[in-house]
Specification:
Elements (H helix, E strand, L loop, with lengths): L1 H67 L8 H13 L3 E8 L2 E5 L3 E2 L12 E2 L5 E7 L7 E7 L2 E5 L2 H4 L9 E5 L4 E5 L5 H9 L9 E7 L5 E8 L7 H31 L1 H10 L3 E10 L5 E12 L2 E3 L1 H10 L3 H22 L4 E6 L1 H5 L2 H10 L9 E6 L6 H13 L4 E6 L6 H4 L6 E4 L1 H5 L10 H12 L2 E5 L4 H9 L4 E3 L9 H11 L11
Parallel strand pairs: 13-15, 15-16, 16-17, 17-18, 18-19, 19-20
Antiparallel strand pairs: 1-2, 1-7, 2-3, 4-5, 5-6, 6-7, 8-9, 8-11, 10-11, 12-13, 12-20, 13-14
Helix pairs in contact: 1-5, 8-10
This protein binds ligand C2E and magnesium ion (MG) (2 copies).
The site of one magnesium ion (MG) has 4 residues, from loops.
């Protein structure tokens, strides 16, 4: 039993693992792969963004160089016109002009403002090569927009910070540009948060975030850095959900496999073990089929027939009795049938001293007197007469002739009539049977079936009947299903019959009801002690 349970749980566990493991492994691998590709893609995007920042910066430098080469006197119309052309030529430069003494002097958009005292604050930072930089600075042209201003030797250019970050990107991944020496955010694309991006820069992109990937890149020529991020489309965030889903599927599949294993084990692998367990736990039942006197229809006794319901399925006794015989379980089975029969029928047997029950035994039960001893002990002080418990043995169980002959004689001596069951189906001849003394012969159903039919085998039934009369043994016809069979049998002096025409095998309470209904002339059983 323990072995069976552990086999079943092993099947369930294996089923779970077999279902979940490959799925989770492939999900894990696919996820890792997706992660890696997303990270690579983002890294490439960061490199592209760095190129843009370099391009914008170089345009600013080139524009300043062009302005420095402008001819004419400071802020002359020719020089302002020249500034205008320079601004136009460099697409990232929005305006550019001259400054000095902490003031704007002139530019194409400002005009000549030398008399207007337009203050230019001190620069935020100076590069090693002498450029001054104003980070996100308010240009006098607009109170709303900030620009980045780069200047050198009295010339400046004004650049829209967006120029650094407006890359064509259908995914609209957030971008930030920082000055890596001051850790200042120079430009942010829509959707980018300055603190978040700066933090990512400081961590060189290794941010522990379930929703976003980060990547950073640094310019090799200028002190500029770029941070980009993209949402994790991968499955990482969904791990718990995925696990729960696949574990549930795994449990269902595992349970199913376990159930199949359980069925297989129960049915085939350890069928004898299951039977042994069922016998030990008394999980087998006994039903009773009436045997009637054919002439009167009166029920004279019953045959005890064993039943086994295994997990809701009825197992034929033809199968499990044979398994019990092959696996040394038959004696336990016979004892169990006797126990249950006496437990259920003792009241009935005591109340009707002529009523009997016949018990099927196997060759093993006939080899020794063990079962006879069990039976004798069991009947003591029950008030049940030995003749009320009869023994049915098939022809096949008569094979071990010497031992069987003695045991049969012992049963008969002890007062238990002995029946030969399924007569005609075995190999022994009638003359061989003459060497046994038995009381009743049960003609097998297969011969009774042929009665009143034209089948060639229908000659066998009358022959057996005749021989039985000669041997002076009583006859029970098995498997009587039709009235015409009764008629035929009665005519030939067959005393008893058993079959569905009279009743099928029943549980004891049904039997008591049936007996009370069919034998109304007799005293009702439930009124008797
Ligand atoms: P059996 O001892 O010859 O029992 C008679 C079988 O014929 C029973 O089948 C019974 O239900 C069936 N039967 C009776 N009347 C009719 C009928 O009119 N029509 C049809 N079609 N069948 C009928 P069951 O119960 O399936 O038993 C089969 C065999 O299993 C028995 O044949 C007997 O050899 C064996 N068996 C049953 N119970 C026990 C037991 O407690 N111990 C042993 N050792 N063998 C048993
Ligand atoms: Mg029988
Ligand atoms: Mg039989």
């Amino acid at each position: 039993m323990i072995k069976r349970l552990s086999l079943i749980s092993a099947s369930v566990a294996l089923g779970c693992i077999a279902t979940v493991a490959p799925v989770l492994t492939s999900v894990y691998i696919a996820n890792e792969d997706a992660e890696r590709r997303e990270q690579e893609d983002l890294q490439q995007f960061a490199a592209k963004a760095v190129m843009r920042t370099e391009l914008v910066t170089y345009q600013a430098f080139a524009a300043i160089a062009d302005m420095e080469a402008a001819p004419g006197s400071l802020c002359s119309p020719a020089q302002i016109a020249r500034y205008a052309r320079v601004s136009f030529n460099y697409r990232y430069v929005q305006d550019g002009g001259a400054y000095g003494g902490g003031r704007y002097l002139c530019s194409p958009l400002l005009g000549d403002v030398r008399t207007q005292q337009l203050t230019l604050p001190a620069p935020d930072w100076q590069t090693k090569d002498g450029y001054l930089v104003w980070f996100r600075h308010n240009n006098p042209l607009s109170a709303e927009r900030q620009d980045i201003q780069i200047g050198r030797n009295g010339h400046y250019v004004s650049i829209d910070p967006q120029s650094y970050v407006d890359l064509i990107d259908p995914a609209r991944r957030p971008i930030a540009v920082v000055n890596v020496e001051t850790n200042t955010v120079l430009a942010l694309s829509p959707g980018a948060n300055g603190d978040d991006m700066l933090n990512a820069w400081k961590l060189t992109g290794r941010v522990n975030n379930e929703q976003w990937h980060y990547a950073v890149a640094r310019s090799t020529s200028r002190p500029l850095g770029v941070i980009v991020k993209s949402p994790r489309s991968s499955l990482v965030g969904q791990w718990p959900g995925l696990l729960v889903m696949w574990l549930s599927i795994g449990v269902v599949v595992g349970g199913l496999l376990g159930w199949i294993a359980f069925r297989r084990i129960s049915r085939q692998l350890s069928f004898p073990a299951t039977l042994e367990w069922a016998i030990a736990r008394k999980r087998l039942d006994v039903v009773f089929q009436p045997i009637v006197r054919l002439a009167s229809g009166e029920c004279v006794g019953v045959e005890a027939l064993v039943r086994w319901n295994l997990n809701g399925r009825y197992v034929s006794p033809e199968i499990f009795v044979a398994v019990a015989e092959q696996n040394g379980l038959i004696q336990q089975l016979t004892d169990l049938v006797l126990d249950k029969t006496l437990d259920e029928l003792s009241k009935l047997l005591r109340s009707r001293p002529s009523f009997y029950v016949s018990i099927n035994v196997s060759s093993e039960d006939l080899r020794t007197r063990r079962f006879l001893n069990v039976l004798t002990a069991r009947l003591q002080e029950t008030g049940i007469r030995p003749a009320q418990v009869r023994i049915e043995a098939t022809e096949r169980s008569f094979m071990d002739a010497d031992a069987t002959r003695q045991t049969i004689a012992a049963f008969r001596d002890a007062g238990h009539p002995v029946y030969i069951d399924d007569f005609g189906t075995g190999y022994s001849s009638l003359s061989y049977l003459q060497t046994f003394t038995i009381d009743v012969l049960k003609i097998d159903k297969s011969f009774i079936d042929t009665i009143a039919q034209d089948a060639a085998s229908s000659v066998v039934a009358p022959h057996i009947i005749e021989m039985a009369h000669e041997l002076r043994v009583e006859i029970v016809a098995e498997g009587v299903e039709r009235d015409v069979q009764v008629e035929y049998l009665v005519q030939r002096g067959v005393q008893y019959g058993q079959g569905w025409l009279f009743a099928k095998a029943m549980r004891v309470n049904e039997l008591v009801l049936w007996l009370n209904e069919s034998n109304t002339t007799l005293q009702p059983i439930h009124q008797q002690a």
